[in-house]
Amino acid sequence: DEPFSPPPAPMEATPRGDSRFEGLDAAHSELLSCLLGAGELGRDAFEDVARKLRLLPDGAIETINEWGFDKFDEPILEGEDHIVVVEHVRVELQGAGAER
User: Fold this and answer.
1) Residue 85's domain is classified under what CATH number?
2) Does the pLDDT of residue 17 top 90, yes or no?
3) Residue 1 forms part of a structural domain
4) N or C end: fewer C-beta atoms under 10 angstroms in the chain?
């Protein structure tokens, strides 16, 4: 007799993020959306939001900037003491949201 083993748990689909940010997961999409809404976040506030989303702040910046390279051929977050979305990209992303 073989020991009973439960069937494997079904794989959960990765939550989808904001459709403006296709390619980013839900947590990174929410962080980017928060930045767009705020205009800028002080470093401490950015880190607090990232951690609430269960993200490492510096890793989140890197992930979002890699996504920016894929979409816009450049990083889209900048700043040390205050984190902001690059102006022309911010306008483009906010315009995409207005169309939906």
Assistant:
1) 3.90.1150
2) no
3) no
4) N
Domain that holds residue 81: 24-99
In the predicted model, is pLDDT for residue 6 greater than 70? no
**Is there a domain that residue 10 lies in?**
no
Number of domains in the chain: 1
Q: Determine the number of helices (DSSP H) and then strands (DSSP E) in the chain.
A: 4, 3
Alpha-carbon 19 to chain mean position: 12
Average confidence (pLDDT) over 62-77: 96
Please give the sequence-ordered ranges of beta strands (E in DSSP) within 1-100, or none if there are none: 40-42, 77-78, 82-85
Q: What is the pTM of this model?
A: 0.78
The C-alpha atoms of residue 92 and residue 2 are separated, in whole angstroms, by: 60
